[in-house]
Amino acid sequence: MHKLYIAPMSTEFSRPVKARHIHGEPQSFTVEAGGDARAALARRFCLPAIAALSGQFTLRHERGGVIGARLSMRARVTQLCVISNEAFEAEITEAVELRFVPAESFTEGDELASDSLEGPDEIPYENDVIDLGEALAEQLALALDPYPRKPGAELPGEAMDGEGSPFAALKGKFSGLS
Prior knowledge:
34% strand, disordered N terminus, elongated
């Protein structure tokens, strides 16, 4: 693991690294959230708890101040089931490609190129500082199931019954339209 080069930033989970120190061979960084950071992130993401959160970053210098990154993330979170409202644990394992890009490379009003959705996520950075902790937190937010469902949870029978459904009345009303 490499030495961090500056003082922590002011987010719940900040692990800053100076971009200019990423050159030559790819460098690896392991980032793991402690108890206080996990509790703060759980509040931020409206989760009952985050039991574990870690990421392995491999950073490589590209051109123009761009830092390419490969992230392998592992997390164990507690979510609330959208059906039963019961808490349950979920394991998240993700591998993603990222690019840390100097903020001045982004211009206001830039339109997304059609191929930009296919490539790695681009994260702007300023003052030569990339924040691996915040990047890991953002990737966790993206990986969370927006409609978490506890294994085995099913809708109650009356919700599944076509006659009792609020859409049943519409079905009869519009069934002749085609």
